């Protein structure tokens, strides 16, 4: 089973830049996209679909902002398009699908760079999200979550850690939440297979950052340890263009 996650920075833009062709040429069972920046009412039915996939969208109330969508093949089924708290769900940040022996959360975690209020919102989201998924695990359900986490976990996960220690996305209080995910039994799948590799999934659109590979690893698949025997591989598809992020992938037995 092959799963992909991609912050596309605009559904309409990325479909104009080859997303459909890439999906058609790439074996995959699930595609999770973040920052769709569109509401379904703005799209023709064909624009909102990928051939051969079912889909579930979460829309932000604010037009042109946030939004996630999951495209999935059988046997995965749609569960819900919200996390369960009104202020978070108004921003269209979560889609949940049932993939048989695990629930898959497609999440666009908040960005905290704007101001202190948005940083607090981001940290609150991290806390509430962890409560939700650990409650599922306690009930015996395995969980995988993926998406743009908007935080680089360790100095290996960005090109210039020293220059960014006081920047949202690499603050100690943000990184501590990723530590808590590990303590709760979730595995950073990329690091599981590539413990020392410097690879990035986002680059600023300014100053040729992607060409110089001055990036951040902000996009992840976190897999609960109960699914460890099924892990086959994980990686970053840096060759795929079309947005400021590139896709990341996970392979399961």
UniProtKB/TrEMBL annotation:
Protein name: Exodeoxyribonuclease III
Residues annotated as domain Endonuclease/exonuclease/phosphatase: 5-241
Enzyme's top EC category: hydrolase
Site description Interaction with DNA substrate, residues in chain: 245
Alphabetized UniProt keyword annotations: Hydrolase, Magnesium, Manganese, Metal-binding
Gene Ontology biological-process annotations: base-excision repair
InterPro entries reported in the protein's UniProt record: AP_endonuc_1, AP_endonuclease_F1_CS, Endo/exonu/phosph_ase_sf, Endo/exonuclease/phosphatase
Domain of life: Bacteria
Residues reported in the UniProt entry to bind Mg(2+): 7, 35, 148, 150, 244-245
GO molecular function, one term: DNA-(apurinic or apyrimidinic site) endonuclease activity
Xref: Pfam families: Exo_endo_phos (PF03372)
Residues at the site labelled Transition state stabilizer: 150
Record-annotated site: Important for catalytic activity: 219
Enzyme Commission number: 3.1.11.2
Cofactor: Mg(2+); Mn(2+)
Species, as recorded: Acidithiobacillus caldus (strain ATCC 51756 / DSM 8584 / KU)
Gene3D superfamilies recorded: Endonuclease/exonuclease/phosphatase
Active site: 108, 148, 245
Family assignment from sequence similarity: Belongs to the DNA repair enzymes AP/ExoA family.
Cofactor note: Probably binds two magnesium or manganese ions per subunit.
């Amino acid at each position: 089973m092959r799963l992909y996650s991609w912050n596309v920075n605009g559904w309409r833009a990325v479909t104009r830049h080859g997303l459909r062709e890439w999906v058609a040429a790439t074996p995959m069972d699930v595609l999770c996209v973040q920052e769709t920046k569109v509401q379904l009412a703005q799209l023709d039915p064909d624009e909102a679909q990928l051939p051969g996939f079912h889909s579930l969208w979460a829309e932000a109330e604010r037009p042109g902002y946030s939004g996630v969508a999951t495209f999935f093949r059988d046997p995965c089924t749609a569960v819900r398009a919200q996390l369960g708290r009104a202020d978070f769900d108004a921003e269209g940040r979560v889609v949940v699908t049932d993939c048989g022996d695990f629930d898959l959360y497609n999440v666009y975690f908040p960005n905290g760079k704007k101001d202190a209020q948005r940083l607090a919102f981001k940290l609150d989201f991290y806390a509430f999200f962890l409560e939700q998924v650990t409650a599922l695990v306690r009930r015996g359900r395995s969980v995988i979550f993926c998406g743009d986490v908007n935080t680089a976990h360790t100095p290996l996960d960005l090109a210039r850690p020293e220059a960014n220690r006081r920047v949202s996305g690499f603050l100690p209080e943000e990184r501590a939440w990723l530590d808590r995910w590990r303590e709760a039994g979730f595995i950073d799948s990329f690091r599981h297979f590539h413990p020392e590799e410097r690879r990035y999934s986002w680059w600023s659109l300014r100053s040729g950052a992607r060409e110089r590979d001055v990036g951040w690893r902000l996009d992840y698949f976190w897999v609960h340890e109960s699914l460890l025997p099924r892990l086959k591989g994980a990686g970053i598809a840096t060759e795929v263009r079309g947005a400021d992020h590139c896709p990341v992938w996970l392979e399961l037995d």
